[in-house]
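Duplicate of #3305? Posting structure anyway:
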């Protein structure tokens, strides 16, 4: 059988999406396939995802070695293809787990499904069965688990004694899949893993900790974020373990789908354009203004914000900063697209009601609205207290919309500040600010508005962002190199190896007093020499 890679994820564009995770899983698989790799994506059998796939057929029943409530649906595997790329996709079809109203993870009221632990443990068990050769699918040469939903997979594979190499990618360390210890037995987790050296986390179990602890290689999605998560401020309680495993931690920045996100060919826009001729952007701006009931005026600066309305995304700071900017910059318009905290949603709607000629708000998310937002705005406001990569500002730059971002994570890697000189700094493509204050964010908007008034320099900022290469070519080559280093059967493309974050020959003592030992791998499920580094310090 051909060497192949199994992706395990909760979502993948275009079948199931709540955010950037889906874009990355679907985009990376497509890029790898285009470069000759054989990739299969395993995702839950959401009914809408199954309906959207091509050539779906049943592979038969699958046994899940875990306890599910009486009367639950039998589980089976379905195989199909992605409708856009032809990538093989496999669904864990179990309607009692995945056929329900609401989002992929929350119910119609916005609350997490109470059985999310069972829903995603089942996914990991299915991946393990595939890796063990217990299904009609080819046995993978490598298994790549994406984020907490899939992160039990390396643990379960190791428990079964499987030698197939595993990779765990951290897309957002803030979301870890933490559940009561009481569910560990019914989930079929090995008792010897339920310790501080295993997946125990403050008396609970932590799915993402399992991936970090037991995977052969750990990656995250930007170089700055990979360094940040080794610190208590950004480590969300797992910095000690990450420092302990720093020798196998690396960073491969995300790419974007340059076909889907291209103003030259985007069918969701009223008029297309490119870096050489921005006339179509004026038409998109007019359409965006009309969509939100704002006066149509090509010369008035329009600042957009498109993100989750949450604490992470500094939506609370943005609310006050936009209010301050409305008072100090009387010509600026604002459009907000997103959803999240109901209190913030209501506050932004109230702001629009107070300024109906200057502020437009749309609660929710539609793909066509996001494309028009990036194409029609002059600037994108994207504050963040932490940001693993930050796809949204990259999309904005592709459309000639200048980003205003926090200097954190992937944002610090992709956005180069314009500076305060008489001309833009070399290779500048946006405005970057430090800190989490209303004043800092508002000052950044003021800087952006100042450069907007200098059209020749503004065009330079737009063109630089539009011409920067954010495609999947480089990232895909790095992933292929990493796969080849772990699984010789996959070493068929000569590419540059992934960059390590830090050798970390010595590390700072973990909280609790003992100094962790930096070792290249977690040898077994039994207590190891990791000491305090593997605790949720």
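Output from current build:
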């Amino acid at each position: 059988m051909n060497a192949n890679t199994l992706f395990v994820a909760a979502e993948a564009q275009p079948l199931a999406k709540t955010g950037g995770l889906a874009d990355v899983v679907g985009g990376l698989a497509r890029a790898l396939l285009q470069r000759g790799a054989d990739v299969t994506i395993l995702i839950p059998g959401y009914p809408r995802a199954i309906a959207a796939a091509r050539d779906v057929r049943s592979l038969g029943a699958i046994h899940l070695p875990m306890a599910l409530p009486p009367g639950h649906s039998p589980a089976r595997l379905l195989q199909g293809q992605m409708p856009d790329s032809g990538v093989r996709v496999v669904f864990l079809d179990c309607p009692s787990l995945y056929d329900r109203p609401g989002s992929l993870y929350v119910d119609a009221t916005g609350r997490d499904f109470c059985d999310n632990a069972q829903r995603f443990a089942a996914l990991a068990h299915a991946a393990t069965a595939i890796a063990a050769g217990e299904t009609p699918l080819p046995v993978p040469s490598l298994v790549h688990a994406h984020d907490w939903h899939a992160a039990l997979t390396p643990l379960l594979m190791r428990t079964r004694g499987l030698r197939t190499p595993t990779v765990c990618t951290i897309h957002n360390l803030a979301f870890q899949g933490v559940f009561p210890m009481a569910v560990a037995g019914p989930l079929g987790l090995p008792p010897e893993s339920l310790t501080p050296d295993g997946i125990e986390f403050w008396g609970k179990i932590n799915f993402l900790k399992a991936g970090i602890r037991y995977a052969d290689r750990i990656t995250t999605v930007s170089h700055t974020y990979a360094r940040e998560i080794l610190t208590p401020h950004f480590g969300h309680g797992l910095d000690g373990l990450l420092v302990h495993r720093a020798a196998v931690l690396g960073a491969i920045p995300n790419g974007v789908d340059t076909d889907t996100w291209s103003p030259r060919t985007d069918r969701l826009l009223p008029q297309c354009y490119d870096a050489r001729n921005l006339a179509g952007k004026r038409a998109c701006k007019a359409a965006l203004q009309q969509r939100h009931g704002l006066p149509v005026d090509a010369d008035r600066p329009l600042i957009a914000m498109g993100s989750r309305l949450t604490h992470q995304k500094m939506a609370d700071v943005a609310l006050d900063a936009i209010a301050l900017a409305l008072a100090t910059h009387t010509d600026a318009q604002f459009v907000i697209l997103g959803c999240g905290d109901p209190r913030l949603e209501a506050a932004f709607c109230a702001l629009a009601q107070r300024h109906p000629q200057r502020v437009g708000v749309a609660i929710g998310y539609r793909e066509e609205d996001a494309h028009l937002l990036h194409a029609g705005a002059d600037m994108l406001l994207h504050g963040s207290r932490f940001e693993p990569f930050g796809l949204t500002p990259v999309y904005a730059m592709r459309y000639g919309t200048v980003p205003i971002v926090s200097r954190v994570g992937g944002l610090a890697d992709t956005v180069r500040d314009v500076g305060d000189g008489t001309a833009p700094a070399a290779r500048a493509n946006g405005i970057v600010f430090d800190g989490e204050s209303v004043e800092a964010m508002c000052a950044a908007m003021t800087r952006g508005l100042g450069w907007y008034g200098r059209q020749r320099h503004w065009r330079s900022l737009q063109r630089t962002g539009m011409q920067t290469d954010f495609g999947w070519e480089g990232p895909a080559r790095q992933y292929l190199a990493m796969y080849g280093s772990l699984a010789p059967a996959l070493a068929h493309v000569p590419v540059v190896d992934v960059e390590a974050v830090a050798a970390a020959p010595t590390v700072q003592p973990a909280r609790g007093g003992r100094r962790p030992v930096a070792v290249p791998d977690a040898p077994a499920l039994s207590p190891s020499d990791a000491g305090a580094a593997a605790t949720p310090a």
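Confirmed duplicate; merging threads. The chain has 19 helices and 19 strands. The chain has a mean pLDDT of 91.
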